[in-house]
Specification:
Layout lengths: L2 E6 L4 H11 L3 E5 L11 H15 L5 H17 L4 E5 L7 H13 L5 E5 L10 H9 L5 E3 L7 H13 L5 E3 L7 H9 L4 E4 L6 H10 L4 E2 L9 H11 L4 H14 L4
Parallel strand pairs: 1-2, 2-3, 3-4, 4-5, 5-6, 6-7, 7-8
Length: 261
Amino acid sequence: MIIDAHSHVHDPLDRHIALLDEAGVDRAVLFPTRPHPERATDLAALRRELGALDSALAGRGDADGYQRAWRELTDALAAHPDRFLGFRSVRLDRPAAEVAEAVHRDVVGQGLRGVGELTPPPGRADLLEPVLRAAHEHGGLPVVVHGFAPTTAADLRTLAGLARRYPKAPLVISQLGGLNWMEAIELVRDTPSAYLELSTAYLVFAVRLAVAEIPERTLFGSDAPYGDPVLARATVERVVAPGEVRDRVLGGTLAALLGLA
């Protein structure tokens, strides 16, 4: 089974399904999203959408924006339950008790697969602690966190420390840790409950080295619509020889993590 470990709700949804079909991807982890860069038809429109992304990455957002994104996710999962594996974000700007309740009510209670993609403001990866504690207490709910900028190297170290504190909760660092990819590889390698998702890699040999160092905890992902499932899969297949390790990266590891295998 080929599983894209990182994608966001598309508008229109059929465009995403077509991309998955073209890439030969069986299923995709689907996160809610407030920005929709795929809607843009010119640079001005893209700037508007990326303004919403900047707000999300800075930890800002209005309640209506969150609710709209969560409704889009619910509709997408209902439309294609055979293709999408739903994850839901929770707000990190709430008291710890409210965060824990949101994990219980909105993720576990809705039968979703995990929590994510979480985007703490730069320097505030510590805000994930209530989420990881709740995921740990729920027996090992996966948690996915944004790994590219503005996430910092210090944030990655904080995340690794939290993962060691709550080892039952698999922590997935996305986008290969962005500009801090070497440190991300080392931290995940040395943190047994952490995983590294490979989307948006800007150096092909970074993917090769990540898989070589962590063959059992690296995950193929596209970060669509920011990335492309066809290109992301081709990158993995370019640098990882056919066989067991490639099969694990392209979906076997995630299938086991989510209880699909």
